[in-house]
Specification:
By secondary structure, this protein is an all-alpha fold. It folds into 2 domains: about 60 residues, Orthogonal Bundle (434 Repressor (Amino-terminal Domain)); about 55 residues. The chain contains 8 helices and no strands. Helix 7 packs antiparallel against helix 8. The longest helix is centred in the last third of the chain and has 28 residues. The termini are far apart. About 25% of the residues are buried.
């Protein structure tokens, strides 16, 4: 489970999502979407939320982005099963290593995660295309989709 920075800071301040939203000049659903990484924590929103939580905007944003990267990497891990053993596996592993290296600037880490996701998407599309084009050897003379004999 990802430790969500914004939720952690909010709870430490003893605030509900509704209270934080009111203090930050937004609504509860916006705070919820930011906490669950469904929406990015923009710089202006980070300043407003940080002021409400009495934390540094830079620290809040750094922690939030770091945890968003971890959440995305978990998605990449789940999706990468087919790609890991293939030709793209080395690239995906290198991108994942770059994404978790805290010495690398956050924007570069975010781009590494995006690239890893794109590589996996490409690999999954290639596998799906190959399956459609390359019927099972036992299906010779049969339609690869329906399995019915071709005339």
């Amino acid at each position: 489970m990802i430790d969500m920075a914004l939720a952690r800071y909010r709870k430490q301040a003893g605030l509900t999502q509704i209270q934080l939203a009111h203090l930050a000049g937004t609504d509860r659903t916006h705070i919820s979407r930011i906490e669950t990484f469904s929406e990015p924590l923009t710089e202006p929103m980070a300043r407003r939320v940080a002021k409400a939580l009495d934390v540094s905007p830079m620290v809040l944003r750094r922690d939030h982005v770091g945890e968003a990267i971890k959440a995305k990497l978990q998605q990449v891990e789940k999706a990468s099963g087919q790609v890991e053993d293939g030709k793209l596996g080395g690239l995906v592993r290198a991108l994942k290593a770059l994404a978790v290296d805290e010495d690398v600037p956050v924007d570069v880490r975010q781009e590494a995660v995006k690239a890893a996701s794109a590589v996996i998407d490409h690999g999954e599309r290639a596998v799906a295309t190959k399956r459609r084009e390359d019927p099972d050897p036992g299906m010779t003379g049969r339609d690869p989709i329906t399995g019915k004999r071709r005339r």
